[in-house]
Design brief:
alpha+beta, Immunoglobulin-like, 4 domains, 5-stranded mixed sheet, binds dinuclear copper ion
Amino acid sequence: MNPTPLITTTEAVDKAFYIIFGISALSLLGITLAMLYLLWRYNRKRQPVPLSQKDHNVWLEVTWTIIPTILVMLMFWYGWEGYLSLRRIPDNAMIVKGSARMWSWLFSYQNGKTSDRLFVPVGQPVKVELIAEDVLHSFYVPAFRVKRDCVPGMPTYAWFVAEKPGSYDLFCAEYCGVGHADMITTVEALPASDFEEWLSVLPAAEDRGPELLKKNGCLGCHSLDGSPMVGPSFAGIGGRQITVVSNGKEISRNSDTAYLERSILDPNSEIVKGYPPAMPAYAGRIAEQDLTEIVAYLASLTETAPTAPPPSAISQPKPERQSVAPPPHLPIQDNPGLELARSNGCLGCHSLDGTPRVGPTFQGLFGSQRRLTREGEEIVLNADHDYLQRAIRNPNAEIVKGYPAAMPPYPGLSDDNLELLIDWLKDLP
Ligand code: CUA
């Protein structure tokens, strides 16, 4: 029961647009013609002396006040009505979650399916619930006249209905960094039956698990084959008894789903014995859907389950790894940079003594020549201040050769602290 007929976003915006455009075009024409006529009529050659000395005319002034007021109110009215149509969601809308992050879109459907393109059924309104995971982005589909800024911490939405099957461009319309232009994707409008078919094909959790772990950077520090890295291996992690250290006390825990979820969102409240507190907290950083699927996948890796084969899709160079003890012989002194490196978990993956770990060592880093991969191309550059800033703010845009793209970005690190860290790195031997 939908008493009001559906006005699409395209219709709503186009109506306001053409009315405003029409009024503007007519005004331009009218004003220009009047101007030309007066120019000709009162040219000094034609009219050397003024015909009258009138300095006002009430009716003329009332007219040129009332008519433009009506026109402006008319433009306001259609603009306002169009805006309301964009914000009012039709009752039968299908809900899709849209997540913007550097530098791609991720659309999640209610049955758990995710896609980097926005698939929609033709003829059904779609409400896209938008969030930004890191910086400002903007959801922009010109074909449906919708554009909505995505601000971190401010969930919002947009809706539209695709009336014809086809592929429509979807852009990020807010400059969000070097990969901004890569955020182009499409809305794929399919006939309802094709859409249902597409939606019903879910990749099995077992297949998606390793991919999600890789996507979230977990495999930089945790292996799937039982070998210890910076963190404990995932092999056999489902439901085993483990000893954790919390506030200096040893506790035995069963790694059930609740434990697994906690140890991803707030890893440093309980540390698995023998490992450093090196993992960044993923609360607010991992997509809810990813978390659910990762926990389910990890819980399925029981000791009796066949060992997960290292997925072929994941090829990582393996730098020499040591069984990891806390970083050795850290100079104990009042050093805010060192303190930051420690509290942000940098030292879990970067050594101070030249040993390669998950990431390259910090020793002699500043001013050294780095061989990097940027957008698939190999480059060599000098590790100067700007490079270090980029490497911390946006670690996966340039990857040091021989290392995996495993480092999470640190959106919580303030600019001041970033400078402190870089100053500290500069002074390292
Ligand atoms: Cu995201 Cu531009």
